[in-house]
């Protein structure tokens, strides 16, 4: 069964940085594109960044472009999200999820940007 475990969240001041990790298991990780999503309080879950299976192409939501960087290590079945210049509107629970597979979401990792 697919398992996704997100980590690395926390409380950070505006302008600060965090690096999120997502460890995946239960499927052939290197064959699937992956995305990071976030869900802010009272809002729908939205995609913020995506990466192809080999890591050669990435896409970002306009709101995070230039500040966030998605990457992956297929040897470790892990994707990352480097988040710089964080803003209060980046607050939310962050999740990872593969493309093309239906399975349970992970528990997410809480990111709170506040002074």
Structure summary:
Helix content is 0%, strand content 48%.
Question: Tags for this entry?
Answer:
115 residues; mainly beta; six-stranded mixed β-sheet; four-stranded antiparallel β-sheet; 10 strands; 0% helix; 48% strand
Structural class: mainly beta
Tell me the β content: over 45%
- Taking strands numbered 1, 2, ... along the chain, how are they ordered across the largest sheet? 2-10-9-4-5-6
* Rg result: 13 Å
Number of extended strands: 10
Residue-averaged pLDDT: 97
Which residues form runs of ≥5 with pLDDT under 50? none
Element-level helix/strand string: EEEEEEEEEE
Cα separation of the termini: 40 Å
Shape: globular
Q: Percentage of helical residues?
A: under 10%
Biggest pleated sheet: 6 strands, mixed
Number of helices: 0
Describe it.
The chain has strands at 3-7, 10-12, 18-25, 34-39, 46-51, 58-60, 68-73, 78-83, 92-98, 109-113. By secondary structure, the chain is mostly beta strands. The strands form two sheets. A six-stranded mixed sheet has the order 2-10-9-4-5-6, with no helix packed on it. Strands 1-3-8-7 form a four-stranded antiparallel sheet, with no helix packed on it. The chain is globular and about 40 Å long. The N and C termini lie far apart (40 Å). The model has no long low-confidence stretch (mean pLDDT 97).
């Amino acid at each position: 069964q697919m398992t996704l475990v997100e980590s690395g969240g926390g409380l950070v001041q505006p302008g600060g940085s965090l690096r999120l990790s997502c460890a995946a298991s239960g499927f052939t990780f290197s064959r699937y594109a992956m995305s990071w999503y976030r869900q802010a309080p009272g809002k729908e879950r939205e995609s913020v960044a995506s990466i192809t299976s080999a890591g050669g192409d990435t896409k970002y939501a306009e709101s995070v472009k230039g500040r966030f960087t998605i990457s992956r290590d297929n040897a470790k079945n892990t994707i990352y999200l480097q988040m710089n210049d964080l803003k209060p509107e980046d607050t939310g629970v962050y999740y990872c999820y593969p493309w093309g597979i239906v399975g349970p979401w992970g528990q997410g990792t809480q990111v709170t940007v506040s002074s």
